[in-house]
Amino acid sequence: FIHKCLLYATLQDEEEAVETGTGWEEWSQGKALVRPPDQMELTEAELKEDITRILTANNPHAPQNIVRYSVKERSYKPINVVDQMAVHCVLEGSLVHQDSEEARKLRVKEDFALLYIYDFDLHYKYLFVGFPQVNPIVDGGDVEEAADEDRPDSAVSRINKKEPKVTNQFNFSNRASQTLNNPMRDRICQTEPPPRSSFSATANQWEIYDAYVQELQKQEKNKEKQKGMHSQKDNGKSKKVMLMETQSEDVTKWTMASKILERTISQNTFDDIAQDFKYFEDASDEFREQEGTLLPLWKFQYDKAKTLSVTALCWNNKYQDLFAVGLGSYNFSRQGCGMLLFYSLKNPAFPEYIYPTSSGVMCLDIHAQHSHLVAVGFYDGCVAVYSLKEEGQEPVYKSTAKTGKHTDPVWQVRWQSDDMDNNHNFYSVSSDGRVVSWTLVKNELVFTDIIRLTLNGAVSEGTEGAQGGVSSGTSFDSHKQIDYMFLVGTEEGKIHKCSKTYSSQFLETYDAHSMAVDTVKWNYFHPKVFVSCSSDWTVKIWDHTINTPMFVFDLQAAVGDVAWSPYSSTVFAAVTTDGTVHVFDLSVNKYEAICQQLVVDKKKTKLTHVEFNPIHPVIIVGDDRGYVTSFKLSPNLRKKPKPTKTINIPKSGLAKLANVLYLPIVRVSIK
Amino acid sequence: MAEVEETLKRIQGQKGVQGIIVANSEGIPIKSTLDNSSTVQYAGLIHQLVMKARSTIRDIDPQNDLTFMRVRSKKNEIMIAPGESICWELLLNEFHSPKMKRCYSS
């Protein structure tokens, strides 16, 4: 490739003109003639002389006399033709022919700029290989780009990622060098392992259930708290409450578990008794036609009650293994404190509940429906209501001198059905001759005198003392079915049938006994029959429409208490001060007791009260030593009326008694 | 608490009672009337038994719970009264009848 270029040389001297065309005379002469000071001086003739210049294509530097050795002729021969090419400038280009292999590759890469160069005959195109713009390391310039390809160890090898480097086949040399490898060093750091604890749990059905229950409780507590937050802003209190709860929860759990334990110990200790209670039936009863026996079961005693006598007994209707014992003293001169105890048959060793009282307990009654309420009458004339649900040893309600307490010992209390305002109320009878109705209104005990007993007849509250002395009521019972009717027994031995609505008069008076009437009790089945007992050694059975007793039993000793049985209308039991329990069954034997059993030491202890258990064939007997003994009734004593298809049990009981009753009255003496 | 103490004394005074152990819900004895090694041994062993028994009962019916357990062996009897967070154990020896009693309440 020969550049045709024109060289320009300054013409300084004509004589020094070089053949290779050094200047343009015409050009220099075109301008104004400037005569330099050191120009050669020539004459005019010399100036006009023509000098011929010839332009040839000969290279002035080319040698003219090259001689080469010819091996054929073995001599040096001059070469005529000498290459006249003079290379002025060499530029290496990066044009690639469009059809060449490399062009195709580059086309694929699309890494080029096309430059169309037409040849003279307009056929060829030449690819001008441009450099890609991607690589910033490249400084630019075609030369470098092209050179890049030659340098195999260049840092830039972006083009050749996909294909192996096209190396220059002429002067490529692979030079490798190794950098300095730093020595490897291990550096270890160990942290303290987090504290671990292994946790295992089971996911049983009940655990899931517990979780749900707890969740529910939490939700409920939250609801309560939300409600409470509006009213109370005292957060400290709630925290305290929480603490107390947890503490008290523990305590309650302890007590529960300990109670259970105590009971089981008792079960073990008194195992045979428990077995007897449940399963023993006196087989010999088959041989004894009519008579029965009492099998002694548990004996209940409390240390601190040793000096007191049992003054009242009552079974709990709801929990039939629980009964209440009132302790006091019948001795007029020796009056001390009293006690209210609750025992369970399941734990005879120790009472369930203990309430010491300041005055002797004379009577008690457990409410039929709300069996946590216990009405108690004291020797000092007070009445009180205890609630078993409450902690503490004080009664929930207590009457005082201001609120109408009796002035004499209270001999009997009885719960009545709730009044119209749904307040609980009970009646009490006392030696001061008053029958008082007490109503539990909120926190108070409100009293109402129902009737005042006098020797000659009843007197209402208004008239005072007009008709003689006051008669002392010693016993009381309200009718089971007829709500307004009740009986009062007096110290004079009379029994008055009264009505709640008529406060001025008795409905009827019976001359029952010669001494104080200790107990009157209506029959559970027969609405007309009641029994009464007295210290005049007799037990009498009455029909309230008839003035004279139906049956009279002489028991040879002062009768302390009499009780009807809840399972049969004709069976009742009586206890006497000589320590004997008499059980009568009128359908079997109208004249004699079918069981007379000495249960305690005759000389020392006197029996004071007796009660039948509502469901079990068990009676409890209290004595004046503070003991309560339980007995199981043998089968002969438990004959129930047989229910036929048409008549249910109560009615048949009624029928049973009715059959017995309406026969001539006989006075019986029992030995 | 005083009631519980009293109950404990009464139980201890009953005929045939060897000892009482009160343990918490994890089987760690809190109170005991026996010597230390026996206490620890009993507490650990009985705890497992109670957990198993309780789990059985509650698996059958989650609303039910274990009230009481007696374990009678040839020589004695163990009575166990579990509570929610407490466990009482009572050991009984009875020389008269073949049943010896040991109460364990927890």
From TrEMBL, chain A:
What stretches of residues are WD repeats? 510-543
Q: Key word Metal-binding present in the record? A: no
* SMART domains named in the record: WD40
Q: Does the keyword Cytoplasm apply?
A: yes
Any Gene Ontology biological process: outer dynein arm assembly
Basic and acidic residues bias locations: 219-237
Single GO molecular function:
dynein heavy chain binding
Question: What is a single cellular component term in the Gene Ontology annotation?
Answer: microtubule
- Which keywords annotate this record? Cell projection, Cytoplasm, Cytoskeleton, Dynein, Microtubule, Motor protein, Repeat, WD repeat
> Sorted alphabetically, which Pfam families does this protein's record hold?
WD40
Q: Where in the cell is it found?
A: Cytoplasm, Cytoskeleton, Cilium axoneme
**What is the role of this chain?**
Part of the dynein complex of respiratory cilia.
Fill in the subunit field for this protein: Consists of at least two heavy chains and a number of intermediate and light chains. Interacts with BICD2. Interacts with CFAP45 and CFAP52. Interacts with CFAP53.
Protein name as annotated = Dynein axonemal intermediate chain 1
Q: What is the lineage of its organism?
A: Eukaryota, Metazoa, Chordata, Craniata, Vertebrata
From TrEMBL, chain B:
Pfam families to which the protein is assigned, alphabetical:
Robl_LC7
Q: Which InterPro entries match?
A: Roadblock/LAMTOR2_dom (IPR004942)
Origin: domain of life: Eukaryota
Q: Which Gene3D superfamilies does its entry note?
A: Dynein light chain 2a, cytoplasmic
All copies of domain Roadblock/LAMTOR2, residue ranges: 4-92
PANTHER family listed in its UniProt record: DYNEIN LIGHT CHAIN ROADBLOCK
Belongs to which family? Belongs to the GAMAD family.
Its name, as the record gives it, is Roadblock/LAMTOR2 domain-containing protein
Which organism is this protein's natural source? Answer: Astatotilapia calliptera (Eastern happy)
* Gene for this chain: DYNLRB1
